[in-house]
Amino acid sequence: MNSTAIHWYDRLWAALIFFTRLPFWRIYQPPSDSYKAVVEFWPLAGWITGGAMAVTLYFGSMILPWSVTVIIAIVVRLLITGALHEDGLADFLDGFGCGGDRDRILAVMKDSHIGTYGVLGLILYMMLLSCAVYSMGPLLAAITVLAADPFAKMITSQLVSMLPYARREEDAKNKTVYRRPSLAAGLSLTVQGLLPMALLFSRLGQQWYLVIILPPLVMYFLYLLILKKIHGYTGDCCGAVCLLVELAVYLVVCSQVIMM
Is the pTM of this model over 0.90? Predict the structure, then answer.
């Protein structure tokens, strides 16, 4: 099917199918070309994953110890996403941690075996994530997760606009290269990513601007690293940047909790 025949709802269904393991595919099967535009609804998929984690945090804390609830909430999101982005983070850390030239990094990132950098990186990431969420308390944690998930996906989607794909399309893991979002898609991404942030801004008060400034800076420095090392993005890069930008939001909120 020609890409001009792909409707917005095709792209939406493709994003929900691609970024979650929920059985949306049983309801509707979008054309294969729709998957090239899944980034356009990536933050909206984050409403589902972040929402599920937020609901688990808030209501789970009413019947379980807070520390246990935090772990269960993380597990819930991993089950919904199939650890898609965590897999990308591990591959990203293995590839960029091994050193070498561009071809070496890309080869290591494509290898299905996880290495030392990936293992250590995932352990440290999960420790920081769980400790950061734990430090907030149920209500603030739920609001922060609900806001941070789509926000990080919105920011990370800019990699697709700022960089070319680092491999040939036939060498892509999922055999799909994301297309660059149009202006209209970019505006839609902004709304999807910023709308849930309104609740978080209301909780942070005068320090809300730190959430807008610091996480995008994390994305920018990672962008510079990716540009320097492999001159383009991969799906693993997108997954890694998304998680690290989201983690930056949690760490900013943590710092504000301590200062309150």
Answer: yes
